[in-house]
């Protein structure tokens, strides 16, 4: 399983290539990354920080 940091880095890399249409919320414990090709979602990745509510 990828770390949250590696998923966020991959998301920013994909934003730079124009592969991902997304909204990034930084005040939450989770992230969803959708890869879109030809107007269809071709990949979905998500991470949830289970320790966030205890910090």
Can you characterise this structure?
- This protein has one helix spanning 4-17; strands at 30-37, 40-48.
- It is of the alpha+beta class.
- The chain has one domain.
- The protein has a two-stranded antiparallel ribbon.
- Strand 1 (30-37) and strand 2 (40-48) form a beta hairpin.
- The chain is elongated.
- The mean pLDDT is 73.
- InterPro entries: NTF2-like_dom_sf.
- It comes from Cupriavidus taiwanensis.
- This is SnoaL-like domain-containing protein.
Rg: 12 Å
User: Approximately what portion of the residues adopt beta-strand conformation?
Assistant: 25-35%
Poorly predicted ranges:
none
Q: What helical percentage do the residues reach?
A: 25-40%
Terminal Cα span: 22 Å
Number of domains: 1
Mean pLDDT: 73
Shape, please? elongated
Judged by helices, strands and strand pairing, the structural class is alpha+beta
DSSP strand tally: 2
Q: Strands of the largest sheet, in order across it? A: 1-2
Biggest pleated sheet = 2 strands, antiparallel
